Each structure stands twice: as structure tokens, then as C-alpha cells.
Amino acid sequence: MITFAVHGIGKPQRALDPGEDERWITVEQFDALLDVVSRSGARLTFDDGNSSDVEIALPRLIERGLYAEFFPLAGRVGERGYVNRDGLRQLVDAGMHVGSHGWDRFDWRRLDGSFAVRRELDEAPRLLEELSGTPVRRFSLPEGRFDRRVLTHLREAGATRVYANVGSVRGAALVRSRTEIRSDLNPRWAEAVSRKSRRWTGPWMARPRR
């Protein structure tokens, strides 16, 4: 089953980092993507922890009974244009899963030294656990790429699931591939990609609250 990776939706509430606008889609594009997800059973993840995760995506997911995983940047939680603690709690209360995208936008293949490893793979998920009130053991790889050293660090950090970009997964049972949604999103493309993925097994529905 295919997994789509979404970043920002709608009008950004902050200045975007260089190249980030290529991953930002309109509300109309997102609604069209949700139509595809509802029909095909595709999965959804959200990276960076943009405020649009809660303001735009969450109400629409709830309305359609869809489940998604959210991977904020721990070092930017609470900053302008990003989710805050209340937003993280809203995601969890709605039955969504919160994982870690690291501390900041940094390619983990370039991690050097114990401080960098601790900050990205230990401190980031620990902070997100405290803020969201739920265990954080799933990770979304910044830049979507990894090597053997990164996998070793992730296993040592207790990761149970790791998302990477399509084409970077080579026999690593821990890692799941994703297809990134970009600003030139065409719903017909998303529909075609979904059809080529595993046979439909029904929508990825939100888990009931306890």
C-alpha cells in the first residue's frame, strides 16, 4: 500500500526555507489528494509539524474518518507557523500518531559526533513525547535518505518504524518507503500511483478513541 508524504498546506504562516515551497500544496490540491486516499486506501504522513497540520489537515481527516502519522521537527514546535503543544495534543486526542522528524531540518547521513546524534535521535523524540503525551518511536528521515550508520543509530534509539523516500529502501525491514507530494500535484498522478501499489484493502481509517 502506498504512503504519501505531505508537508505544508494552504498559505504559509511563516517564511519558508529555501526550496520548501516546492513541497507546499494548496487546500484544493489537498482535498483532491484526500479523495484519492479515501478511494484507494493509501496512507498519509505529514512532515515538519507545520501549523496547517492542525488547522487544515486534521479537521478534514476527522471528517473523512482517515488516520495519519505526523512527524514534527522538535526544535520548531511552538514557533510561528508550526504546531505547538496544544496542537500535538489535538492530533493525539483525534487518534493520530505523532513521531519524530528530528530536531531540525538536517540530513542524518551527515551526523557527526555524539551531540548531534543525541539531539536528533534522543532529545527530539523525548521532547515530542513530553509535549504530546504519547510514546514516540517512529521516525521520518529528513531528506528521506539513510545509510547503514543511520540505521544503526535508529535501532539504538528504539525505532519501531522509519519512513524514507521511494528508491532509498534496500532490504531494511525497519524502513518503509513513501512518495513525496509536491506543489505540482496532479490528482490523476496520485490516483495512478495508488493503483500501481498493493491491491486495495480499504481506507486507512482512524483508530477509535479509548
TrEMBL record:
It holds the Pfam family Polysacc_deac_1. GO terms for molecular function: hydrolase activity. The keyword Hydrolase applies. Transmembrane segments: none annotated. Its main location: secreted. Its EC number is 3.-.-.-. The keyword Signal applies. This is Polysaccharide deacetylase family protein. Residues 40-210 form the NodB homology domain. It comes from Amycolatopsis silviterrae. InterPro entries: Glyco_hydro/deAcase_b/a-brl, NODB_dom, Polysacch_Deacetylase. It is found in: Secreted. Keywords: Hydrolase, Signal.
